[in-house]
């Protein structure tokens, strides 16, 4: 699943000793200067907050007091008639900028298959290929190929890869948001690095001439861009020390909070897609205690992210997506936990120019069945692509020559979100 991702170590592996395929004669400096001078494209951006394991909808965004299994009470939000659980008091105060999709029903109940489905819009194994993730799709459609910054970044965890979209759209993974992309400085300075890069380029040129394969060219381009970032002032996008202590406190000093803050910085600097995973939501045991702790990190970070984007004038062109593997069972098991439940659950969308301050879909009093506004994984992917201005019917060509839609067929977009 992760075979085609680029961790930061892989991404910068050759920049320590010379980048693969980097031209000589000041090419790096010229590219970096050109990227810095050109105004940022005004396409949409996306920040995906992925709750790994699957969050309980009943204990977060779809409270069911009639159910009687949740220790958390519903509280009002800034939108009359919309309630969330008391676990999310700060998010409740920005609900006017959010839309809740309470009719999710996605059918895949195992973690691996569910995550794949929610990230790609295809069931795992369809066509015998690995499909591109939402991040790779956004990179393919929304990125600026000549930008020094990567188009798809994952902060604080593992991401799904590019599949047949190509390695140039694979994610760069930043494990620690406080460290950003490490090893951006050459040991003997940029002049020494450029000399080594130029020598390596001469040595590799013959191979590139003999093997002009798209994958080889994409590989070379990836390392060229990594080297360009070493020359670019845009590398400061990864530096959280540029943020005030008050701002960092507002997001929360947790890994997830710091990752959300870094995500905001990256989209401000032009990155098309940032994913921020948050682990721990597979609450088979001690659901109440774990939800309380998890929401203690989620609540300030999500609320601060939405508020920050709004205050900076970036919320309308940045779509924030909150989702996970699936929901959790309406009942609590013997060990005090909730099990996997894809039949009925909730996702959240914020910003992106959507019609927010509303709920789409409805579950029954127990939170176990969708009664109105059912949304499948394919529907959800098509809706997100529509919000980002991506034509989800456009076809990729797989390595075997097979045409494959961006999102699988039989989709229904949640039109209530679009004015």
Describe the structure.
This protein is an alpha/beta fold and 419 residues long. The protein has a single domain, classed as 3-Layer(aba) Sandwich (Alkaline Phosphatase, subunit A). The protein is built from 11 helices and 17 strands. The chain has helices at residues 8-11, 27-37, 89-92, 111-120, 134-142, 189-210, 214-231, 245-251, 255-268, 287-311, 377-387, and strands at residues 6-7, 45-51, 74-76, 83-85, 98-104, 152-155, 172-174, 273-278, 318-324, 327-328, 340-341, 345-351, 358-360, 362-363, 370-372, 395-397, 403-405. The protein has a 9-stranded mixed beta sheet with strand order 1-7-6-8-2-9-12-5-13, sandwiched between helices. A two-stranded antiparallel sheet has the order 3-4. Strands 10-11 form a two-stranded antiparallel ribbon. A hairpin with a 5-residue loop joins β16 and β17 (403-405).
Helix-strand blueprint:
Elements: E1 6-7, H1 8-11, H2 27-37, E2 45-51, E3 74-76, E4 83-85, H3 89-92, E5 98-104, H4 111-120, H5 134-142, E6 152-155, E7 172-174, H6 189-210, H7 214-231, H8 245-251, H9 255-268, E8 273-278, H10 287-311, E9 318-324, E10 327-328, E11 340-341, E12 345-351, E13 358-360, E14 362-363, E15 370-372, H11 377-387, E16 395-397, E17 403-405
Parallel strand pairs: 1-7, 2-8, 2-9, 5-13, 6-7, 6-8
Antiparallel strand pairs: 3-4, 5-12, 9-12, 10-11, 14-15, 16-17
Helix pairs in contact: 2-7, 4-11, 9-10
């Amino acid at each position: 699943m992760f075979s085609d991702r680029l961790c930061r170590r892989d991404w910068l592996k050759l920049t320590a000793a010379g980048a693969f395929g980097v031209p000589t004669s000041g090419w790096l400096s010229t590219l970096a200067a050109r990227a810095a001078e050109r105004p940022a494209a005004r396409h949409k951006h996306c920040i995906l907050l992925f709750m790994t394991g699957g969050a309980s909808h009943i204990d977060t965004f779809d409270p069911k007091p009639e159910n009687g299994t949740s220790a958390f009470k519903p509280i009002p939000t800034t939108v009359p008639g919309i309630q969330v659980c008391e676990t999310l008091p700060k998010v409740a105060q920005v609900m006017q900028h959010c839309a809740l999709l309470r009719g999710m029903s996605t059918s895949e109940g195992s973690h691996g298959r569910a995550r794949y489905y929610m990230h790609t819009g295809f069931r795992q194994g369809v066509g015998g290929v690995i499909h591109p993730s939402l991040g790779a799709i956004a990179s393919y459609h929304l990125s600026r190929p000549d930008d020094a910054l990567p188009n798809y970044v994952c902060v604080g965890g593992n991401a799904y890869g590019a599949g047949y979209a190509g390695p140039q759209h694979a994610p760069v993974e930043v494990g620690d948001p406080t460290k950003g992309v490490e090893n951006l400085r050459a040991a003997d300075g940029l002049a020494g690095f450029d000399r080594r890069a130029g020598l390596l380029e001469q040595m590799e040129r013959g191979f590139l001439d003999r093997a002009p394969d798209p994958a080889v060219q994409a590989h070379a381009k990836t390392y060229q861009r990594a080297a360009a970032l070493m020359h670019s002032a845009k590398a400061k996008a990864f530096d959280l020390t540029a943020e005030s202590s008050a701002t960092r406190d507002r997001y929360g000093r947790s890994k997830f909070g710091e990752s959300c803050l870094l995500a905001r910085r990256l989209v401000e600097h032009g990155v098309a897609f940032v994913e921020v995973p948050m682990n721990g939501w597979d609450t088979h045991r001690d659901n109440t205690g774990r939800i309380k702790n998890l929401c203690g990190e989620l609540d300030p970070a999500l609320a601060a992210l939405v508020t920050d984007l709004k205050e900076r004038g970036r919320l309308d062109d940045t779509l924030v997506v909150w989702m996970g593997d699936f929901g959790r069972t309406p009942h609590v098991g013997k060990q005090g936990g909730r099990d996997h439940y894809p039949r009925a659950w909730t996702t959240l969308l914020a910003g992106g120019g959507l019609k927010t301050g509303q709920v789409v879909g409805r579950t029954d009093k127990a939170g176990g069945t969708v009664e109105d506004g059912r949304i499948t994984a394919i529907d959800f992917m098509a809706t997100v692509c529509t919000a980002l201005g991506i034509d989800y019917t456009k076809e990729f060509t797989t390595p075997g020559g097979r045409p494959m839609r961006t999102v699988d067929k039989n989709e229904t977009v949640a039109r209530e979100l679009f004015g």
